[in-house]
Structures are given as structure tokens and as C-alpha cells.
Write a structure and sequence with these properties.
The protein has ten helices and three strands; from the N terminus they run αβαααααααααββ. By secondary structure, it is mainly alpha-helical. The chain has one domain (about 1-270): Vanadium-containing Chloroperoxidase, domain 1 (Up-down Bundle), CATH 1.20.144. Strand 2 (about 255-260) and strand 3 (about 265-270) form a beta hairpin. Helix 1 packs across helix 3 and helix 4 crosses helix 9. The protein is globular, with a radius of gyration of 20 Å.
């Protein structure tokens, strides 16, 4: 019953991020994209945060289907949480390995803020809108993901595996009790938010895949270091992935476009969102 309650509460809290996978029109071959160098600022962040909060009212049947699938997978993983933890503890040599430490830092609360500050600073000082946009999107994706995780953790109150209370131990409304804040995995949502934004901002298919490797290491590290159950990690990854895509999609939709509709006679169409 505790597991079902957890899934139900998670669905309510997570609903803002799932509307991220709307299909986007592919720009025409002769389309030039114009970007506003000044739009990635605090005012825009507040405006877009409002959009994020009201996303649940825009849900369609496909979004509910995604939630159902995610909930079903999460429930199945919960049945295996204890056995997966036992297997991880039986292989302690991996817990402090270099890959696990890399994963821990990728989803940690130092790398993401430092990356954001560096990108935004460079973008502003060098008038480089590419790095400014990237920093802005990483900041939004990480903050929105962490907000969902923070509220979920506090409301659900699932015990972390290292407490040895078991995977079914819940004590709701424990917002500032870290050992009782296991579901979902905060490091993992931040890691996947970061990797998703990076992946969406590169052209190379190879780099798009590579961007997710450190996020995968983060997921593995949280299990091997006994900080989270496997189901916590799965949900954290889902949150980061969908939120990261929502942020990038939002900015792609808001770009103004000039379409070269005819070369002779020269004809331009301006599309303003």
C-alpha cells in the first residue's frame, strides 16, 4: 500500500515536467534562426517558471499514457529494490571507484552551479548567446528538477537504504530529514537534466550519446554507494530527462524565424511566436 501511495503522490508532483516531448516542426532547409541576446535573464526565468507550473492543465492522452508506463515500471522496480541493493553491497569494490566518483560529482550540487555561472558569465561578457543560452537552460532544468524532487522527497518520506529500515519504510512530510528523503534521487535528476540539455544542444549524434554517460554513472553511483534504491534512481532520471527536454523545447518554439521562401524574386517570410 505504501508503494501505491508513493506512486500516486509522485504522479501529482511530477505532472509539470511530463509535457516535454511535444513534437517540434523541423525548420526548413533555408531557414535562418535569429536569437535575442537579451532574453535569457531573470525576468524570462520568472515568466518561463510560470509556464512550467501550469503545464499539468495542458496534459493530453499521450501524457497520461507516459505517466502510466513510468508508474508501472517504478512499481516493478520497487519489487526488486531489496535484491538489487543486496547485489550492490556484495560488490563493494565498485562503490569508491573512479567512475562512481565521477558520477557522484556530475550530479552533485557543485558542478552544476559552477557550470551555470561559468556559461552565463562567459555568454554575458563575450556577448556569446550560445553559451548564455546553454547556461540558462541548464539552470532552469536543474532548478525545476530539484524543485520536483524536493517536494516529492518531503511529502513521501521514504527511508534511504543505508538506514537499514527497508524499502517499504515511509514517514511523510519529512522535508529536512535527509535519511528519510530517498524518493526520488536528487543527484540523478540533476545529472540527467544536465546531460539532456547538453545532448540537445549538440549536433553530433555521437556527442548526444556521450553526454548521457556521466548521468548513467551518477545513477549507478547512487545505488552502489547505498544512497538510493533503484526505483528512486529511475524516477530521478525520468524527471531530469523530461524537464531538460521541456526547457530546450520551450526555447526552440519561441525562436523567431526568417524563412527564405523564394530566391527569385527574393521573398522572405518572418515567423514570430
Amino acid at each position: 500500500m505504501n508503494r501505491l501511495f508513493t506512486l500516486f503522490l509522485f504522479i501529482l508532483l511530477f505532472s509539470g515536467s511530463l509535457h516535454a516531448q511535444d513534437s517540434l516542426p523541423v525548420p526548413a532547409k533555408d531557414t535562418l534562426v535569429l536569437r535575442d541576446n537579451n532574453k535569457y535573464n531573470f525576468s524570462e526565468f520568472i515568466h518561463e517558471s510560470g509556464k512550467f507550473i501550469v503545464q499539468p492543465v495542458k496534459w493530453r492522452a499521450g501524457d497520461w499514457l507516459k505517466i502510466g508506463v513510468i508508474g508501472g515500471i517504478t512499481y516493478l522496480l520497487m519489487q526488486q529494490d531489496e535484491s538489487i541493493r543486496t547485489s550492490a553491497l556484495d560488490n563493494p569494490q565498485y562503490s569508491k571507484s573512479v567512475p562512481m566518483e565521477i558520477g557522484k560529482q556530475w550530479g552533485g550540487f557543485v558542478l552544476v552551479p559552477v557550470t551555470v555561472v561559468a556559461l552565463l558569465t562567459h555568454g554575458s561578457l563575450a556577448h556569446n548567446n550560445t553559451t548564455k543560452k546553454l547556461g540558462f537552460e541548464i539552470a532552469e532544468a536543474a532548478l525545476y528538477s530539484e524543485a520536483i524532487s524536493f517536494v516529492s522527497k518531503g511529502c513521501i518520506g521514504r527511508a534511504r537504504p543505508f538506514t537499514n529500515k527497508g524499502a517499504d519504510n515511509y514517514r511523510s512530510f519529512t522535508f529536512f530529514d535527509s535519511p528519510q528523503n530517498s524518493f526520488p534521487a536528487g543527484h540523478v535528476d540533476a545529472a540527467f537534466a544536465l546531460s539532456t540539455v547538453l545532448s540537445r544542444n549538440v549536433e553530433s549524434g555521437f556527442l548526444k550519446v556521450i553526454a548521457y554517460i556521466p548521468a548513467g554513472l551518477t545513477a549507478a553511483s547512487r545505488i552502489y554507494q547505498d544512497e538510493h534504491w533503484t526505483s528512486d534512481v529511475f524516477v530521478g532520471g525520468v524527471i531530469g530527462y523530461f524537464v531538460g527536454n521541456w526547457v530546450v523545447n520551450l526555447h526552440q518554439k519561441k525562436e523567431s524565424r526568417i524563412e527564405l521562401s523564394s530566391l527569385y524574386p527574393l521573398s522572405l517570410k518572418v515567423h514570430l511566436d
